[in-house]
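pasting for ref. prot 1 ->
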Amino acid sequence: MNPPLAGVAAAMRFDILTLFPEIFQGYLSQSLLKLALQKQLVAIHLWNLRDWATGKHKSVDDRPFGGGPGMVIMPGPVFDAVEAIRPQADDPGQLILLTPAGQRLDQALVKELSQQKRLILLCGRYEGFDERIRLGLRPREISVGDFVCNGGEVPAMVLIDTVVRYVPGVLGDPDSVTEESHSEAGRLEYPQYTRPRVFRGMEVPDILLSGNHQAVARWRREMSETRSRERAWLHEQTEENEVKDVKEGKSHEEQTDQPCGGDVPQTGDPEV
């Protein structure tokens, strides 16, 4: 994005491989990330996968073998793009594939990724990547959650947004990352208040106006612990419900899957 200043190397570099680089323009021109780019703390390079496509129509996708809906990104353009981009910097970087099948992104993983000097992000589209991209390039697979996006661009923004907070100088107050939710596993941040002191009948807790720093710190710690316990309880309830749904679904399948003639299996050709 920004040409580097003479003799200045960004603390961290991101290379983004995507079919839609225009999606990132607004994102890169706002807020903390914009300032980080201007200060050369972070460098972000956008690459269009179609630049490595061949043929008259510059196609990067094709129909899946075996049939099925949608289109699959072909291995050729992706391999060529990665092999051309890696030598663009001294550090070959860690290749990351944004996929719902990957390792869940959490704060511990964010901190780990922030120790890298360079990350190369592969953003998928359509029905995803040809499996040989995963097998041949061996990227690290990362998911931002158990849901499916239209493409890997928004997950890439999530990853960048979380990682750059650990780059020195990006945040105005370096203590912010130690106070935030998930700075410790499972811990949530305490509630925050600002002016006015009273809004629609809701008042700022007196302790925050007392000027007693030790009491404020104690209150914040207690509120953080309370919030964390409540969220942990919600997670437990969700997991219990998911297990219950699976068991009930399996039981229903066993009941409805019985052969019409009773317990004796029906004969016939095996499934292929």
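and prot 2 ->
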Amino acid sequence: MEHLWIALLAGVVAFAAAWFLARFALKQQLARSQASAKDILDNAHKDADRQKHQIIVKAKEEWFRQRDEQENKLKQRGRKAEEQEARLEEREKKLARREDTLKQREQQIVQRESEVETHKLALRTKDHELERLVAQQNLELSKITQLGVEDAKQLLMTNLRHEFNKEAAELYKGIVDESKANAVREAKRILTMTIERIASEHASETAVSVVPIPSEEVKGRIIGREGRNIKAFEQATGVKVIVDDTPEAVVLSAFDPVKREVARLALEKLINNGKIHPQRVDEIVAQCEQEVDKQIWRAGNESIARVGVGKIHPEMIRLLGRLYFRSSYGQNVLSHSEEVASICGFMAAELRLDVRMAKRAALLHDIGKAISQNQEGTHTQLGMEIGKKYNEDPIVINAIGSHHEDIPADNLISLLVSAADAISGSRPGARRDTLEGYIKRIDKLEKVADSFEAVSKAYAISAGREVRVMVQPEKISDAQADLLASDIAKRIQQELEYPGQIKVTVLRETRVTSYAN
């Protein structure tokens, strides 16, 4: 029993000791946990302070960066504003200079008008004086010659008409020379500068194409049995095939240049392929028509891009491309149209007109030639119809119709197109004429000049670009010679058709011979 109590007491003591030890260990662990928690809190505060500091620093850096960007933007805006202000000032100066130039021109025009009015007043004064002299001389002649009033009046009027024509011719020459001086000088400057900037090639005009063949036996294959191949080819292309004694060549004849080009390509492919029969002919011709259509589309677009006229209706682009295969007087019509557009653009720029509109009107001025071989009407009429159909500008339509004076020109651009067309067509090497046409033009020029009184002989020189007129010096004065040159030029404009311009030169020469014995 005693041992039981001792064991029980030992157990109690052991339990108490374990409890105290456990509580002590718990307190120690709690203290350590509190210390660890405090350390964690301290570290958290330190991390928070550090992050806060970093955020503040980054915020300041971002603020400084944005401030610098805004300052740079403000500086750039300031510079742009200064540049715009400088440009505006320069533009204002140019406008002021242009305004001064216009004022000077207006003053010159007013001065010219005043001079013309002065000349008119002088002429009216002379008319009144002539009327008084006529009445006085009529009376004196009636008394002296004992002629009737009508006879005396007729004689006096004949004498006075001769004297008045002489004075009027001298006055006309002076006014015309003075008024033309500046205009001619400026026109020469513009035209010379324009022509110097143009250097174009020209193509030869033809209604036939020659296709080389490797040997004479190919001609037999082209003709085919009983002519089946050549008949099928002509029916498919609409082109006449001429197989004659020309060595190693076949000639294709057609007035439609597009059909002739299709036929040329098709015949070359058939010859290279070696298989020539009616079915094959139809296939090759269809392929070549597609190829030529692509060439037409490409040529039209490339021409528009080279000239720079903006957007054009697709159908007009195709018509423009067809001009690549058309020629007139030895000059390729598409190249001629591009050349006219360049010349017209240069002159429009010099005269401060709408350059793009001028180029557009010039490029399309011969658009009617793309269909003139298949439809009735002149190429100007057809061109105007095309322009109206595809809603072209009225200026362009008027330029198309007026460049051969079929209708009057109602704007300056139309006049420039006519001038540019004449320059392109009349420059050396641009066009060729037949011998028969050349001889007829020369003969007509000389007949027109010979039809005037006091003309002894007229000669057309420089390939019909100039007419030299010899006059009888006893029948005409120097001042009247100037009027005669003007009258001949006007008659040529009314009665003849010609490219470019024709110079009229009147030569008056007095020769006096004496002999010393």
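The chain has a mean pLDDT of 79.
Strands lie at 208-212, 240-242, 249-253, 327-328, 331-332, 455-461, 466-471, 503-507.
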